[in-house]
Structures are given as structure tokens and as C-alpha cells.
Amino acid sequence: EADRALHRNLLAFGLALALALGLGWLGSSLLLVHPVRALVRSSARLALGDLTARTGLIPRRDELGQLTLAFDRMAQALEEREHERLRLSHKLQGLSHRLVEVQETERRHLARELHDEIGQSLTAAELNLQAALQSPGAAALESRLEDSIQAVARVLEQVHDLSLNLRPSM
Predict the structure, then answer these.
(1) How far apart are CA 66 and CA 161, in angstroms?
(2) What is the pLDDT of residues 59-112, one digit of tens each?
(3) How many angstroms separate the CA atoms of 104 and 28, rounded?
């Protein structure tokens, strides 16, 4: 009778131990392993650049729940910052294009002013100096008039070069 009781008690103890181990394994799997694996998967996705990675776990009050909540908040903040960075980058590109357009417009304007206004005035001055050189009684001033014509021709060439440099033909 004692052997049977011992056998029954050992069998009950074995079943209780198996049940306890099974519940411990299931509990640890649900309470520890599953959340840790979710964090590892989400961390790996985030490391690869997937800013939509979240654990998908319901936050709990324990430390692991706080860690998953902090991870999800961090991933959300990173995603929002990346969207903001992209928005500002597009805005900066637009402003850069606009700046180039304004610079080109100003260069065209300056080149046109140099060519049309100053260039024409210098050409007229050069023609007047040449006419003065050809006039009777200009022999005494011939040297000075020729120097003036050469100076005006040099300035005219410089204005022409500036005009081309500001707005090349290509």
C-alpha cells in the first residue's frame, strides 16, 4: 500500500512538475520571448531604414512594456523627422532653383544694359573722336585724339567682354 501511495504521489508530482514547467515555458514565451523578439525584429527593420517599423505590442506597465513603448515612440519621432527633412530638402531645392533663375535674369539685364546703353555711348564717343581727328585744324590735337580713340576702343572691348561673360551666348 505504501508503494502504491508513493507511486501515486510521484506520478502526481511528475504531472504537477510537467504542468508547472509547461505553464512556465508558455508564460515566459508570452511575457518575455515574444516581446523581445518583436523588439529585435523592429530594431532590425529600423536599422535597415524602414522608418515605419513598430513593435505592434500593447504597452504593459512592466519594464519590457515601457521599453517597447519607448521604442515605438522613438521610431515614430524618427519617421516624422525624416518626413520633415525631406519636406525641407524639397523646399530648399525650390529656393535654389528660384535663386538661379533670379541670378540669370539679373545677368541678362546687366549684359543688355552694358551692351545696349554703355556700348552704344562708347561707340558714339569713338565715332565723334574719329570725326574730330578728321576735321581741319586737328593736327595739333592728333596725338591726344588718337590716344582717346584707343582708350575708348579698349573700354568698348572690355564692356563687350563683360557683357559676354555675364551672359554667354550658349
Answers:
(1) 71
(2) 888 888 899 999 999 999 999 999 999 999 999 999 999 999 998 888 888 888
(3) 69
